[in-house]
Amino acid sequence: MSTIRQFQVTFDCADPRRLAGFWCEVLGYEVSPPPAGFATWDDFDRSRAPEDRGAWYACGDPLGAGPRLFFQRVPEGKTAKNRVHLDVRVGTGLVGEERLAALEAECARLLPLGAVRERLLYDGKDSCIVMRDVEGNEFCLD
């Protein structure tokens, strides 16, 4: 039996390039190189049929530690709560007010990028902030 060690997280979305740009800023990721034979993503898009231009985009961790993120355009909009979401781990090892301060600082950084704050979950020791990305997908600052 084989063991798979690599995976990517795929987002269905309306605007792959915009959503990829948002997550690059959040995670410090970089846009993946364009497909072989193309100098830029714009060159690649110009080679495609008009209805297929901008249909997908990808980004990855420049250190190679995190999973690749893939964004694919779909015709339908988001209609329900995510069944899977990303936890952005900014408070690892912190507790109480120190953890809460780290989460609040990251939340303040992400709001100008287009993120939306939904709610704070805090019990005096542990905390997370539920957020939405630029297309309304839920994620948590954890």
Give structural attributes.
single chain; 142 residues; 3 helices; four-stranded mixed sheet; 2 domains; globular; alpha/beta
User: How many domains make up the coordinates?
Assistant: 2
Global outline:
globular
Q: What is the number of helices?
A: 3
- Which residue ranges are poorly predicted, with pLDDT under 50 across at least 5 consecutive positions? none
Main sheet overview = 4 strands, mixed
| Strand content bin | 25-35%
The strands making up the biggest β-sheet line up spatially as 1-4-3-2
How would you spell out the order of helices and strands? Answer: EHEHEEEHEEE
Q: Whole-Å distance between the termini? A: 34 Å
| Strand element count | 8
Radius of gyration: 17 Å
Provide the structure class: alpha/beta
Which range best describes the helical content: under 10%, 10-25%, 25-40%, 40-55%, 55-70% or over 70%? 10-25%
List the helices and strands and how they pair.
Elements: E1 8-13, H1 16-27, E2 30-31, H2 41-46, E3 56-60, E4 68-73, E5 86-88, H3 96-110, E6 116-122, E7 127-132, E8 138-141
Parallel strand pairs: 1-4, 5-8
Antiparallel strand pairs: 2-3, 3-4, 6-7, 7-8
Verbal overview:
The protein is built from three helices and eight strands, in the order βαβαβββαβββ. The protein folds into two domains: 8-73, no CATH class; 86-141, no CATH class. A four-stranded mixed sheet has the order 1-4-3-2, with helices on one face. It has 142 residues and is an alpha/beta fold. Helix content is 23%, strand content 27%.
